[in-house]
Amino acid sequence: MISSQRKSHKYIWLVIVLVIPILLTMALKDLNFPSTSGSVNTEQLTAALKSNVVQIELKQPFQSPSPLVYELDAQGYSGRLLGQLRGTGKYEFSISESTKGVVVIDGIRKEELFKIEF
What is the DSSP secondary structure assignment for residue 35, as one 8-state letter? Predict the structure, then answer.
């Protein structure tokens, strides 16, 4: 190769080496994997179970000032506290393998606000 071909060849490979990882990263971000067990979609919230994570998107806030999210065991009773919903937005909670769903309870009045069973 002559000098000009070597330079252009070097720059072409440099561009390829930089562009391909960027394109792969962008492609992986756009992948949507289906939920493994189920999802619920209502006017107030959307909940999906993906492997050991419950994703809750709160579209409208609850009237309660302190909604708490608990796991549901096999008998349908609330178990471990997962967290609190503080307003509209997306929340992710890690759950155990034996979880059959989640329940949202008013922390002050101890009333059930929403129940999701997968």
Answer: P
Break the chain into its structural domains and give their ranges.
1-31, 38-117
pTM of the model: 0.61
Higher pLDDT, residue 26 or 77: 26
Contact between 78 and 105 (Cβ < 8 Å): yes
Rounded to 5 degrees, φ, ψ at 25 are -65, -45
Tokens standing for residue 67: 């909604």
* Residues 3-34: tens digit of each pLDDT: 999 999 999 999 999 999 999 999 888 776 55
Which CATH topology does 38-117 take?
Answer: Immunoglobulin-like (2.60.40)
The residue with tokens 């002559």 is: 2
